[in-house]
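Lab meeting, item 3. Inverse folding demo.
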Protein backbone atom coordinates (compact mmCIF):
# COMPACT_ATOMS: atom_id res chain seq x y z
CA UNK A 1 0.00 0.00 0.00
CA UNK A 2 1.42 3.39 -1.00
CA UNK A 3 1.52 6.38 1.37
CA UNK A 4 -1.34 8.12 -0.45
CA UNK A 5 -3.68 5.13 -0.40
CA UNK A 6 -6.48 4.66 2.13
CA UNK A 7 -8.47 1.59 3.17
CA UNK A 8 -12.22 1.03 3.24
CA UNK A 9 -13.67 -2.20 4.60
CA UNK A 10 -17.13 -3.68 5.02
CA UNK A 11 -19.79 -4.22 2.37
CA UNK A 12 -21.65 -0.91 2.64
CA UNK A 13 -18.55 1.33 2.83
CA UNK A 14 -16.98 -0.38 -0.19
CA UNK A 15 -20.23 -0.06 -2.17
CA UNK A 16 -20.36 3.64 -1.29
CA UNK A 17 -16.73 4.01 -2.31
CA UNK A 18 -17.29 2.42 -5.72
CA UNK A 19 -20.27 4.73 -6.32
CA UNK A 20 -18.48 7.86 -5.08
CA UNK A 21 -16.35 8.46 -8.16
CA UNK A 22 -13.09 8.27 -6.20
CA UNK A 23 -10.16 6.36 -7.67
CA UNK A 24 -10.45 2.77 -6.43
CA UNK A 25 -7.11 1.04 -6.90
CA UNK A 26 -8.15 -2.55 -6.08
CA UNK A 27 -10.62 -4.61 -4.08
CA UNK A 28 -9.95 -7.78 -2.08
CA UNK A 29 -12.71 -10.32 -1.44
CA UNK A 30 -12.47 -13.10 1.12
CA UNK A 31 -11.94 -16.48 -0.48
CA UNK A 32 -13.62 -17.93 2.62
CA UNK A 33 -16.94 -16.10 2.10
CA UNK A 34 -19.41 -16.26 -0.79
CA UNK A 35 -22.51 -14.13 -1.31
CA UNK A 36 -24.78 -12.75 -4.02
CA UNK A 37 -23.78 -9.22 -3.00
CA UNK A 38 -20.14 -10.08 -3.66
CA UNK A 39 -21.07 -11.38 -7.12
CA UNK A 40 -23.10 -8.25 -7.90
CA UNK A 41 -20.27 -5.99 -6.80
CA UNK A 42 -17.73 -7.96 -8.83
CA UNK A 43 -19.84 -7.34 -11.94
CA UNK A 44 -19.84 -3.61 -11.20
CA UNK A 45 -16.08 -3.66 -10.68
CA UNK A 46 -15.58 -5.41 -14.00
CA UNK A 47 -17.77 -2.84 -15.78
CA UNK A 48 -15.68 -0.03 -14.27
CA UNK A 49 -12.36 -1.81 -14.92
CA UNK A 50 -11.50 -1.88 -11.20
CA UNK A 51 -9.15 -4.79 -10.38
CA UNK A 52 -10.14 -7.27 -7.69
CA UNK A 53 -8.93 -10.58 -6.33
CA UNK A 54 -9.65 -13.08 -3.57
CA UNK A 55 -7.52 -13.41 -0.44
CA UNK A 56 -7.77 -15.21 2.88
CA UNK A 57 -9.63 -13.70 5.84
CA UNK A 58 -6.31 -13.54 7.66
CA UNK A 59 -4.77 -11.43 4.87
CA UNK A 60 -7.74 -9.05 4.83
CA UNK A 61 -7.82 -8.66 8.62
CA UNK A 62 -4.09 -7.95 8.73
CA UNK A 63 -4.44 -5.31 6.02
CA UNK A 64 -7.35 -3.43 7.59
CA UNK A 65 -6.51 -4.09 11.24
CA UNK A 66 -10.04 -5.17 12.15
CA UNK A 67 -11.96 -8.47 12.24
CA UNK A 68 -15.13 -6.58 11.21
CA UNK A 69 -14.29 -6.45 7.51
CA UNK A 70 -17.21 -8.64 6.34
CA UNK A 71 -14.91 -10.29 3.84
CA UNK A 72 -14.22 -7.24 1.67
CA UNK A 73 -11.65 -4.45 1.61
CA UNK A 74 -10.79 -1.75 -0.93
CA UNK A 75 -7.75 0.45 -1.52
CA UNK A 76 -8.43 3.94 -2.83
CA UNK A 77 -6.88 7.34 -3.38
CA UNK A 78 -8.66 10.05 -1.36
CA UNK A 79 -9.90 13.23 -2.95
CA UNK A 80 -7.55 16.21 -2.82
CA UNK A 81 -9.40 19.21 -1.41
CA UNK A 82 -8.77 22.80 -0.42
CA UNK A 83 -10.50 24.95 2.15
CA UNK A 84 -14.04 25.26 0.80
CA UNK A 85 -14.32 28.96 1.63
CA UNK A 86 -11.13 29.69 -0.37
CA UNK A 87 -12.34 27.74 -3.40
CA UNK A 88 -13.97 30.23 -5.80
CA UNK A 89 -15.71 27.38 -7.64
CA UNK A 90 -17.41 26.03 -4.51
CA UNK A 91 -21.02 26.97 -3.76
CA UNK A 92 -22.20 26.62 -0.13
CA UNK A 93 -24.89 23.98 0.26
CA UNK A 94 -27.35 25.99 2.38
CA UNK A 95 -26.86 29.65 1.45
CA UNK A 96 -23.74 30.65 3.38
CA UNK A 97 -20.95 28.42 4.64
CA UNK A 98 -21.56 25.97 7.47
CA UNK A 99 -18.38 24.26 8.63
CA UNK A 100 -17.47 22.08 11.60
CA UNK A 101 -14.24 21.96 13.58
CA UNK A 102 -13.56 18.94 15.79
CA UNK A 103 -11.36 19.82 18.75
CA UNK A 104 -9.42 16.80 20.08
CA UNK A 105 -12.01 14.08 19.36
CA UNK A 106 -10.35 10.84 20.51
CA UNK A 107 -12.67 8.02 19.44
CA UNK A 108 -12.60 7.19 15.69
CA UNK A 109 -16.14 5.76 15.97
CA UNK A 110 -17.37 9.13 17.25
CA UNK A 111 -15.37 10.84 14.51
CA UNK A 112 -17.00 8.72 11.83
CA UNK A 113 -20.50 9.13 13.27
CA UNK A 114 -20.06 12.92 13.29
CA UNK A 115 -18.94 12.85 9.65
CA UNK A 116 -22.03 10.83 8.74
CA UNK A 117 -24.37 13.23 10.54
CA UNK A 118 -22.60 16.27 9.07
CA UNK A 119 -23.13 14.99 5.55
CA UNK A 120 -26.82 14.40 6.29
CA UNK A 121 -27.26 18.00 7.49
CA UNK A 122 -25.30 19.45 4.53
CA UNK A 123 -22.21 20.71 6.38
CA UNK A 124 -19.85 22.16 3.77
CA UNK A 125 -16.61 20.92 5.30
CA UNK A 126 -15.27 19.29 8.45
CA UNK A 127 -11.88 20.21 9.90
CA UNK A 128 -9.74 18.53 12.53
CA UNK A 129 -6.25 19.21 13.93
CA UNK A 130 -3.32 17.07 12.87
CA UNK A 131 -2.28 16.55 16.50
CA UNK A 132 -4.25 15.47 19.59
CA UNK A 133 -7.15 14.16 17.53
CA UNK A 134 -8.20 10.73 16.31
CA UNK A 135 -7.10 10.23 12.69
CA UNK A 136 -9.71 9.76 10.00
CA UNK A 137 -8.67 6.15 9.48
CA UNK A 138 -10.47 3.06 8.19
CA UNK A 139 -12.39 2.67 11.48
CA UNK A 140 -13.71 6.24 11.30
CA UNK A 141 -14.41 5.82 7.61
CA UNK A 142 -16.54 2.72 8.22
CA UNK A 143 -18.44 4.50 11.00
CA UNK A 144 -19.17 7.38 8.62
CA UNK A 145 -21.27 4.98 6.45
CA UNK A 146 -20.09 6.61 3.23
CA UNK A 147 -20.09 10.20 4.48
CA UNK A 148 -16.30 10.25 4.47
CA UNK A 149 -16.22 9.56 0.73
CA UNK A 150 -18.66 12.33 -0.16
CA UNK A 151 -17.25 14.93 2.23
CA UNK A 152 -13.83 13.84 3.54
CA UNK A 153 -12.60 15.72 6.63
CA UNK A 154 -9.78 18.21 6.13
CA UNK A 155 -6.74 17.81 8.39
CA UNK A 156 -5.34 21.10 9.74
CA UNK A 157 -1.57 21.27 10.23
CA UNK A 158 -1.49 24.81 11.67
CA UNK A 159 -4.46 25.61 13.89
CA UNK A 160 -3.40 29.26 14.27
CA UNK A 161 -3.23 29.82 10.51
CA UNK A 162 -6.54 28.05 10.03
CA UNK A 163 -8.43 30.30 12.44
CA UNK A 164 -6.79 33.38 10.92
CA UNK A 165 -8.13 32.22 7.54
CA UNK A 166 -11.57 31.68 9.03
CA UNK A 167 -11.61 35.16 10.57
CA UNK A 168 -10.55 36.77 7.28
CA UNK A 169 -13.58 35.22 5.54
CA UNK A 170 -16.17 36.74 7.88
CA UNK A 171 -17.12 33.65 9.85
CA UNK A 172 -18.78 33.59 13.21
CA UNK A 173 -17.07 30.92 15.32
CA UNK A 174 -19.54 29.21 17.64
CA UNK A 175 -18.29 27.04 20.47
CA UNK A 176 -20.50 24.37 22.02
CA UNK A 177 -21.17 23.86 25.70
CA UNK A 178 -23.67 21.50 27.33
CA UNK A 179 -24.86 24.08 29.88
CA UNK A 180 -23.39 27.56 29.24
CA UNK A 181 -24.04 29.81 26.27
CA UNK A 182 -26.91 31.16 24.19
CA UNK A 183 -30.04 29.33 23.09
CA UNK A 184 -30.38 28.30 19.43
CA UNK A 185 -32.79 31.11 18.54
CA UNK A 186 -30.41 33.76 19.91
CA UNK A 187 -27.81 33.14 17.18
CA UNK A 188 -28.25 33.76 13.45
CA UNK A 189 -26.91 30.59 11.86
CA UNK A 190 -27.75 31.71 8.32
CA UNK A 191 -24.46 33.63 8.13
CA UNK A 192 -21.04 32.02 7.56
CA UNK A 193 -20.61 29.74 10.57
CA UNK A 194 -17.85 27.56 11.96
CA UNK A 195 -19.20 25.31 14.71
CA UNK A 196 -16.67 23.88 17.17
CA UNK A 197 -17.30 20.60 18.99
CA UNK A 198 -14.94 19.58 21.77
CA UNK A 199 -13.35 16.51 23.30
CA UNK A 200 -15.57 13.72 24.64
CA UNK A 201 -14.58 14.34 28.26
CA UNK A 202 -13.19 17.86 28.51
CA UNK A 203 -15.04 19.76 25.80
CA UNK A 204 -13.35 22.55 23.87
CA UNK A 205 -9.79 23.36 24.93
CA UNK A 206 -9.03 26.68 26.59
CA UNK A 207 -6.87 27.71 23.65
CA UNK A 208 -9.61 26.96 21.11
CA UNK A 209 -12.21 28.94 23.09
CA UNK A 210 -10.11 32.05 22.39
CA UNK A 211 -11.11 31.81 18.74
CA UNK A 212 -14.84 31.64 19.50
CA UNK A 213 -17.05 34.66 18.89
CA UNK A 214 -19.97 33.12 20.76
CA UNK A 215 -21.15 29.96 22.52
CA UNK A 216 -24.25 27.81 22.26
CA UNK A 217 -25.67 25.49 24.90
CA UNK A 218 -27.84 22.39 24.80
CA UNK A 219 -30.01 22.72 27.92
CA UNK A 220 -31.77 19.79 29.54
CA UNK A 221 -33.64 19.15 32.78
CA UNK A 222 -32.73 15.46 32.72
CA UNK A 223 -30.64 13.85 35.45
CA UNK A 224 -28.32 12.61 32.69
CA UNK A 225 -25.46 15.08 32.72
CA UNK A 226 -24.08 14.62 29.20
CA UNK A 227 -24.54 13.01 25.79
CA UNK A 228 -22.22 11.10 23.53
CA UNK A 229 -20.36 13.71 21.47
CA UNK A 230 -21.71 12.42 18.15
CA UNK A 231 -25.31 12.56 19.46
CA UNK A 232 -24.66 16.03 20.93
CA UNK A 233 -23.29 17.22 17.57
CA UNK A 234 -26.21 15.74 15.67
CA UNK A 235 -28.79 17.59 17.79
CA UNK A 236 -27.02 20.92 17.33
CA UNK A 237 -26.60 20.42 13.57
CA UNK A 238 -30.29 19.59 13.28
CA UNK A 239 -31.28 22.90 14.89
CA UNK A 240 -28.83 24.82 12.69
CA UNK A 241 -30.08 23.06 9.55
CA UNK A 242 -33.70 23.73 10.52
CA UNK A 243 -33.02 27.44 11.01
CA UNK A 244 -31.22 27.66 7.67
CA UNK A 245 -33.86 25.96 5.54
CA UNK A 246 -36.66 27.96 7.20
CA UNK A 247 -34.89 31.20 6.31
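The presenter then showed the designed sequence:
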Amino acid sequence: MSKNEKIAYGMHPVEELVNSGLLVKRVYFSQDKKSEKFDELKNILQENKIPFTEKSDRFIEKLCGSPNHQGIIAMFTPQERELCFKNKNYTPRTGNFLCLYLDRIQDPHNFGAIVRTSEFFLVDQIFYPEHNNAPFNSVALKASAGGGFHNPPYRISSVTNFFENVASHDFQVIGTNPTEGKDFDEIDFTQNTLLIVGNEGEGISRKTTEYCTDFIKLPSESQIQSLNVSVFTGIILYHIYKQRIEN
